[in-house]
Task: inverse folding
């Protein structure tokens, strides 16, 4: 089992090959990833954990989660979910992203996460749930805005729907 002294080192190993080596300058997104990683305590990482992170970074969440079943690492599971969601994985579901935001943490690329979440709104979501979801924030995608306005209309909140559209 390999031991890393924090996820910062881990993230740098994942990101460095993507940007052509360690000497390339950090982009804003990578800096945000490193900022988020500092919030996690040092954890020992097995080869399975490293492989799960690599799979998630490629958008292969289902395969990454199979690797994680062999180990107990809730921090890695959250990071795997975040990596998959920001890597345009088709496996990420609404509840996966909701679980990240339920932690009341700040996540890098949170608007990207929200847009992915909005795109994966379950078909059977009630009008009440949609209205509650956008009670404190504006939808980021056209489809979510459309669902929000329709839900407000059906709930006889036409004035609020008009305000949202303007």
Result:
């Amino acid at each position: 089992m390999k031991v890393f002294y924090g996820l910062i080192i881990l993230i740098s190993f994942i990101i460095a090959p993507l940007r052509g080596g360690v000497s390339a300058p950090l982009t804003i997104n990578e800096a945000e990833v490193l900022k988020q990683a500092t919030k996690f305590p040092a954890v020992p990482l097995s080869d399975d954990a490293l492989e799960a992170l690599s799979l998630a970074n490629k958008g292969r969440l289902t395969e990454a989660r199979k690797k994680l079943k062999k180990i107990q690492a809730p921090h890695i599971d959250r990071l795997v979910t975040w990596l998959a969601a920001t890597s345009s994985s088709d496996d990420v579901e609404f509840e996966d992203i909701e679980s990240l935001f339920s932690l009341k943490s700040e996540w890098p690329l949170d608007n990207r996460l929200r847009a992915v979440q909005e795109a994966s709104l379950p078909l059977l979501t009630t009008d009440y749930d949609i209205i509650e979801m956008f009670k404190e924030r504006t939808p980021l995608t056209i489809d979510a805005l459309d669902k929000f306005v329709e839900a407000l209309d059906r709930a006889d909140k036409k004035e609020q729907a008009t305000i949202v559209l303007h």
